[in-house]
Amino acid sequence: MTAARDVAIRARDLTIGWGNFVLLDRIAFDIARGDICAILGGSGCGKSTLMRHLIGLEHPKGGTIEIQGAPPGTVREGRPPFGVMFQSGALFGSMSLLENIDLALARWTDLERPARRAVALSRLELVALGGFEHHQPAEISGGMKKRAAIARALALDPSLLFLDEPSAGLDPISAVELDELLITLNETLGVTIVIVTHELASIFKVAHDCIMLDKKSRGIIARGNPRTLRDESDDRFVHAFFNREAMGE
Description:
34% helix, 249 residues, globular
């Protein structure tokens, strides 16, 4: 496991489920600071459910989660320690992009309106949406909505970002542009990024590390650099998944 000072997320004996049903059983992992880590696996394996537990929207049946040394949902220095981009973007449709970002700043900071506006504009510039601050979500493309949602997730200057299916529904060009944005944010800001995804092209392009969940075993079937797993794994299912091959008989 990674040294404590270098860990952004730590899970131990984590069991996730409802009632008598267990989705993930006593899994353990660390995610290192500064990494881009993909959570992946087949349909129904628990990718998005795991992310909801990591950000504190749901509580595990057992085990522990630490986000930068504290339980999920802990507020430090008057603000959450991470930002989240949900799959749909979850932007408020009746508000401009600037107003969407300002919501987080108004809630969690003591900044006056002019200062909040300056921060919001800088976040939009960061994701190549400068000049679109007065547009509403319905007036921009799907890829732009995803970038606006990332700008909002960055509003409080977090050191950790969670992204749920960021490339879902995007055309190939928009998906590549989003991948490049994530790499830039990671390299220039040093932000740790956790991505829930099944898009192999994005995984191979951006991820340093991955956690592959398995529905049958209710656990982690593979862990490591996705390109290494693609080329070297001797597990039949893992090899087929990363190489887009049919399992056959």
